[in-house]
């Protein structure tokens, strides 16, 4: 990958877990656990780069000693893409020090054209009561970036919603899909993509090869629907 805003993890533990996740023998429970663990590692790497710590006040320890408290900045919202993005949500909520808004986007690929179709969107389009209620960064959670069409559609929706930046966290992408998604956004640094691994091939059915199959079907046992 040549795009400067695509970051492919080289973490040894992630690489090993990704190879386990690819296996056809991993069941739904194992798939759920591995998606969570891989997402957590990627999120640690992504948020270390995308967030900063700021002083947020003072408090006392149990020894009555005063210390300076810290929080993270800027404000974020989590946006899992239904269904499979739900498998990554708990990892991000575990990592972030405070609760943050969670919004959902429902997108599926039309089987013939492979074009994304939005069927659900619960982004709040009303004006927040305060400026601090509007997140600066939307963290988009989608395990697979194959053709890139779904990611592009979701990124466009989030930028139109009004966030300053979209951070995409994915488990696996294809070279062409990552390249396509990386070109979204009008300003440099407006879109950053953090991904666990990259495969070269996409089949004519829009599946990454060797890939790991349909993550949503694997998580929710709807194979053959």
List descriptors.
two-stranded antiparallel sheet; 30% strand; eight-stranded mixed beta sheet; 6 helices; alpha/beta; globular; 225 residues
What report would you give on this structure?
The chain is of the alpha/beta class and 225 residues long. It contains six helices and twelve strands. It has helices at 12-22, 28-50, 86-95, 149-161, 175-182, 215-220, and strands at 6-8, 52-60, 66-73, 76-82, 105-109, 116-121, 137-141, 144-145, 165-174, 191-199, 201-202, 208-209. Strands 1, 4, 5, 6, 7, 8, 9 and 10 form an eight-stranded mixed beta sheet that branches. Strands 2-3 form a two-stranded antiparallel ribbon. It has a two-stranded antiparallel sheet with strand order 11-12. Helix 1 runs antiparallel to helix 2 (28-50) and helix 2 (28-50) crosses helix 3 (86-95). The radius of gyration is 18 Å and the shape is globular. The two termini are 34 Å apart. The mean pLDDT is 93.
């Amino acid at each position: 990958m040549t795009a400067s805003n695509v970051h492919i993890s080289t973490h040894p533990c992630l690489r090993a877990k990704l190879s386990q996740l690819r296996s056809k023998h991993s069941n739904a429970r194992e798939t759920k656990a591995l998606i969570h663990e891989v997402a957590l590692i990627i999120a640690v790497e992504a948020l270390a780069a995308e967030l900063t710590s700021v002083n947020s006040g003072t408090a006392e320890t149990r020894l009555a000693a005063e210390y300076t408290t810290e929080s993270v900045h800027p404000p974020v919202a989590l946006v899992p893409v239904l269904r499979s993005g739900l498998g990554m949500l708990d990892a991000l909520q575990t990592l972030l020090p405070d609760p943050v808004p969670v919004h959902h986007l429902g997108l599926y690929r039309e089987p013939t054209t492979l074009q994304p179709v939005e069927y659900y969107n619960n982004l709040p389009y009303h004006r927040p009561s305060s400026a601090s209620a509007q997140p600066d960064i939307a963290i988009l959670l989608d395990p697979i970036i194959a053709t890139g069409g779904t990611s592009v559609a979701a990124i466009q929706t989030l930028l139109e919603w009004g966030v300053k930046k979209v951070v995409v966290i994915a488990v696996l992408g294809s070279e062409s899909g990552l390249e396509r998604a990386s070109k979204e956004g009008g300003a440099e640094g407006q879109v950053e993509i953090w991904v666990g691994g990259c495969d070269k091939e996409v089949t004519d059915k829009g599946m990454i090869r060797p890939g790991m199959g349909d993550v949503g079907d694997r998580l929710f046992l709807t194979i053959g629907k």
